[in-house]
TrEMBL record:
<feature type="region of interest" description="Disordered">
    <location>
        <begin position="1"/>
        <end position="24"/>
    </location>
</feature>
<dbReference type="Pfam" id="PF02353">
    <property type="entry name" value="CMAS"/>
</dbReference>
<protein>
    <submittedName>
        <fullName>Cyclopropane-fatty-acyl-phospholipid synthase</fullName>
    </submittedName>
</protein>
<keyword id="KW-0443">Lipid metabolism</keyword>
<keyword id="KW-0489">Methyltransferase</keyword>
<keyword id="KW-0808">Transferase</keyword>
<comment type="similarity">
    <text>Belongs to the CFA/CMAS family.</text>
</comment>
<dbReference type="InterPro" id="IPR003333">
    <property type="entry name" value="CMAS"/>
</dbReference>
<dbReference type="InterPro" id="IPR029063">
    <property type="entry name" value="SAM-dependent_MTases_sf"/>
</dbReference>
<keyword id="KW-0949">S-adenosyl-L-methionine</keyword>
<dbReference type="GO" id="GO:0008610">
    <property type="term" value="P:lipid biosynthetic process"/>
</dbReference>
<feature type="active site">
    <location>
        <position position="363"/>
    </location>
</feature>
<dbReference type="GO" id="GO:0008168">
    <property type="term" value="F:methyltransferase activity"/>
</dbReference>
<dbReference type="GO" id="GO:0032259">
    <property type="term" value="P:methylation"/>
</dbReference>
<dbReference type="InterPro" id="IPR050723">
    <property type="entry name" value="CFA/CMAS"/>
</dbReference>
Amino acid sequence: MAEGYRNQPHWPLDTGTSQRTSGTGGMELLAELLREADVRLGGERPWDMRLHRPEAADRILLHGSLGLGESYMDGDWDAPAVDEMIHRIIRARLDRKVRSPKFLWHALRTHLVNLQNPRRAKCVGEVHYDLGNDFFEAMLDASMAYTCGYWADADDLAAAQTAKLDLVCRKLGLQPGMRLLDIGCGWGSLMKFAAERYGARCVGLTISKAQADHARARCTGLPVEVRLMDFRDIDEPFDRIASLGMFEHVGRRNLRTYFEVVRRCLRPGGLFLLHTIGNNSPSAHTDPWIDRYIFPNGDLPALRQIARAVEHLFVIEDVHNFGADYDRTLMAWDRRFEAAWPRFADRYGERFHRMWSYYLRVCAGAFRARDLQVWQIVLSPDGVPGGYRRPS
């Protein structure tokens, strides 16, 4: 954390007293709310909130998640363990007690507008994935996998990502010579792994030019083709299809279209693996801070929405939830990000530093609270004869 933020005075508040002074009403109300999550305003535990500007309390109470995130970016408050603070806030369901006019408008906008139409779909690539390949190389491991690792038998990030990629290939039953489509291929982590380890011939789709260029360079000499295109435009046969971490950008209005595209491209007897973050229940909104600063137009699905969208198209063969592993993945990324930050400080500035650190730690807290999940779902067009067996 930058020296300028570390040395700001924070405003201690004894949350066990009822004294009220002029201008502290918002602070006392915020303290009362946080106390329900065992988070103290002005406390000394790692997950306690140190308030640097008292007016930030009103901003947080008025604007909820958006106010909390923006005031952190502005240096109005700190907590050494933001991830644990958010974990406690979510477990106490405090997010349900703070609703603002902006929040309600955001929910209405999500319902009325197709935020993931082909024109809008490119926005997330420009805002997020095109930040700089060197930036993501520093944060991610050598595989450049930007999705949840599989930590069942892993002790570090690289091992967890290798285990995840291998699990995907084994679930798909990949064999040499099979044609694999990777929808939302990122920097080519799955395609490179599948081509090198399983002898697959791969085609990857991305809407990020920076990702496409990097993936092509990483896969030089392999039977891998990277296309800069929207998933709706693909129409050719594949033996296997996978999509890791892209479905969160499809949007509820486009779920059926998405699965129809997969169905028309999947050969008879093929398998499709969907790896996605998901909500515990259908939600009318995306988090407004995440939407504004990290993933524009994102929309996390619930299992019910996925199940309805695949009706009459696929048989659901297997559903595997290892969402708790994203906590460890995100915290590993956060450590790498902080270690590499001096290389990027001049390029991005301190407000970006706080924004990105907040993003990683808030998401870690949400997965730790089991408020978000990660599902790997295996689908087949007509059902696997004799039944599908998940590889151990």
